[in-house]
Amino acid sequence: MQHLNTTEVVMQKIRIGVSPLSWVNEFLPDLGVETTASALVSEAKAAGYQGVEMSRALPSDPAELTSLMAKHDMTLASGWYNGFLAECSVEEALADVRAHAGLLRACGAHVMVYGECGHMIENALDRPLTDRMALADSDLGSYGARLTAFAEALRDDFGMQLAYHPHLMTVTETLDEIRTVMAHTGPDVGLLLDTGHAAAAGFDYGQLITEFAPRICHIHLKDLRADIMAEVRANDISFNEGVRRGMFAVPGDGSVSFDAVAEFIGSGAYTGWLVIEAEQDPIHESPADTVSRAFQFVQRAILGHPASEQGARP
Fold it and tell me: How far apart, in whole angstroms, are the C-alpha atoms of residue 311 and residue 299?
């Protein structure tokens, strides 16, 4: 009988996925306009990934999406939801999310990524980074209560875990804002750890692991090109323009250290998806090449697999 060591047991509970953002952008419709769903999923599979997140490039019909995933032996890891609980009731949000959550559940996903895109200035991603809205202190308690109730209903009605995504230009961008939201929400509001957005917001993502490890339920591995980010900040450029200039990169192509997440994974404190992500222009950076290179980097630098063991995992 083969006996597995602790590290091997941990790694069997980790799955490696990739965001379609290297192929097609959700907020910049011209990026990846010619990308087909079949090409996206097949290239992700060829690079070694076990799953992808939802994208506008993928079919929105559950049967069609399930068939596409099965054809390539892939899994739907999760899907982003544009949340607006800062401005609406729980009932309104549940009515709005029903079709999306149903699609994710039907296709085997167990995590829904929640980004608070309500309470944003119109065309926020095309405005200067400093031109964003924050929640008033007096609104934080009620916001947290609505978010918690929404997460509990998502769990009860769909069997889905909510992964709250701190994100540039939203009401939860800085470390203190994340702390505040976590303090005002219950345990069903999980936290998405995004290494790139933390760096872009000016703090060490390792602090999230230190303070909120039990609530981290989904991980986006994203790198940041510090020189471009500094230029974006200095000139108060928009998020979308920063993306076009290449401020984000796949792991290994930027300035972020992934030692803390490697230690977190190695400790066994986290099981679930590691999703490689980078908003990139597919014309300037070949998706197939960048995600393949990133997969090899994650295998080596985060999971500790030597080069001879790299490649698709069963």
Answer: 8
The tokens for 63 are 């049967």
DSSP strands (E only) in 195-297: 216-221, 223-224, 248-249, 272-276
Work out the angle at residue 300's Cα, subtended by the Cα atoms of residues 168 and 255, and round it to the nearest 5 degrees.
35
Sign of CA dihedral 290, 292, 293, 298: positive
Per the CB < 8 A criterion, the answer to whether 84 and 117 are in contact is yes
Q: Give 124's DSSP letter.
A: G
DSSP string, 55-105: -TTS-SSHHHHHHHHHHTT-EEEEEEEEE-TTTS-HHHHHHHHHHHHHHHH
Between β-strands 223-224 and 248-249, what pairing exists: parallel, antiparallel or unpaired?
antiparallel
Write out pLDDT tens, residues 105-150: 999 999 999 999 988 888 999 999 999 999 999 999 999 999 999 9
AA letter at 305: H
The pLDDT score that the predictor gives to residue 313 is: 37
Structure tokens at 53: 């997140």
Report the DSSP beta bridge partners of residue 76: 52
Residue 262 makes CB contacts below 8 A (sequence gap 6+) with 301, 302, 303, 304
- Is there a contact between 44 and 276 (Cβ–Cβ < 8 Å)? no
Rg of the chain in Å (alpha carbons): 19
Residue bearing tokens 């230009």: 169
Contact assessment for residue 122 and residue 73, using Cβ atoms and an 8 Å cutoff:
no
Tell me the two tokens of residue 157.
Answer: 């009605």
Q: Is the pTM of this model over 0.85?
A: yes
Total count of residues recorded for the chain: 314
**Spatial distance between the Cα atoms of 103 and 97, rounded to a whole number of angstroms:** 10
Low-confidence ranges of the chain (pLDDT < 50): 1-7, 9, 307-314
Query: What confidence score (pLDDT) does residue 81 get?
Result: 97
